[in-house]
Amino acid sequence: MNKENIKVLFNGYSKFENGNYFANCSCVLIKTTPCIIIDTMTSWDEEKLLNALNEEGVYANDIKFVISTHGHSDHIGCNHLFKSATHIVGYSVSHRDEYFTEPDFRNNEEYVINEHVKVVPTPGHTLQDVTVLVETVDGLIAVTGDLFEKYEDLDDDCVWLNAGSDSETLQRENRRKILDIADYIVPGHGAMFKVPEKFKKN
After folding, report:
1. Which residues contact 145 (CB under 8 A, 6 or more apart)?
2. pTM of the model
3. In which band, very low, low, confident or very high, does the pLDDT at 4 lie, cut at 50, 70 and 90?
4. What is the C-alpha to C-alpha distance for residues 52 and 74, in angstroms, rounded to an integer?
5. In whole angstroms, how large is the CA radius of gyration of the chain?
6. Which of 140, 202, 120, 127 is nearest to 167 (CA)?
7. Average pLDDT over residues 100-115
8. Contacts of 196 (CB under 8 A, 6+ apart)
9. What does the pLDDT look like over 138-154, one tens digit per residue?
10. 3-97+109-199 in CATH: which number?
């Protein structure tokens, strides 16, 4: 798959202003067969999300998989738009009112969508976080949700810890795992970045 098939529709953000916290997630489109959207932002983003998809020549019914890296409201807000899709929300996999028992993410099983895309468990920020791994000719792209908050948290643990962590131990372990295998990371609340070599295991 070409890297051009991976489109970050919106870069996420998170910030404190005047004692209040503001955040929205990164939203990613994978233009392949099947067509996939990852993290659909807040419920107030419906119009801009549909417009962004239309600019890519994609319509709601074209989306066959909706993947929410976890269940927080800024990552699932527009899931309802995609009624033709299988929905993966954290460890929950469903289509309409049917829920599937496989894969068993709790036992580290993976959900393989096609030869280039799979969903793997990466708990930490919540205990049911998942990451989407996308093989491209330019390297492995990991769409991680809030396992990584933004590029700055590579050097400052306070960035991801202040965003909340249900298990600091698991989050550290899974951050390490993704850093070891990924060439690029799309974090939950920042722009995609290339993984610096200094963070790879020797």
Report:
1. 25, 39, 68, 69, 70, 75, 125, 129, 130, 131, 188
2. 0.96
3. confident
4. 17
5. 16
6. 127
7. 96
8. 154
9. 999 999 999 999 999 99
10. 3.60.15.10
